[in-house]
Design brief:
The chain has helices at 12-23, 83-92; strands at 6-9, 26-32, 35-39, 45-50, 76-80, 96-101, 109-113, 119-124. It is an alpha/beta fold. It has one domain (6-53, 69-124): 2,3-Dihydroxybiphenyl 1,2-Dioxygenase, domain 1. A four-stranded mixed β-sheet has the order 1-4-3-2, with helices on one face. It has a four-stranded mixed β-sheet with strand order 5-8-7-6, covered by helices on one side. Strand 6 and strand 7 form a beta hairpin. Helix 1 packs antiparallel against helix 2 (83-92). The longest helix is centred in the first third of the chain and has 12 residues, at 12-23. It is globular and about 45 Å long. The mean pLDDT is 94. Residues 1-125 form the VOC domain. One of its GO terms (molecular function) is dioxygenase activity. InterPro entries: Glyas_Bleomycin-R_OHBP_Dase, Glyoxalase_6, VOC_core.
Length: 127
Amino acid sequence: MKYSVSIDVPDLAKGIAFYTDVFGVQEVARPIDVYAVLRGSGGQAFGIIQKPEGSEPAPETDDRRHYTRHWTPVHMDIEVDDFDATLDRLTAAGGTVEQVFDMENRPKTAFCADPFGNGFCLMETRD
């Protein structure tokens, strides 16, 4: 089985800039004008796809895409070695840190969102 994760953003260039600035990933492919594949140093890849604000996310729905903070039951967990420095880059690049957990005997974890409202968990590298 093979899978991939794609993130909807209203502006492809701004989406690429956010994820490359914060996480150090690199664009490795642009199969179509509105879709870029980004890859991290660990080899994991994900896609960024430009979808307009207000567009229909699925046929036969009244729902519309919006880029304010939203909840979804599916999200990425991103593990980093430099947790505090990543949080600093994240906020400098326009993302938000919603809650940080620093509990004894557990890796630091934060609930975060990119500038487009997509939530994810940032996690300190586990031993």
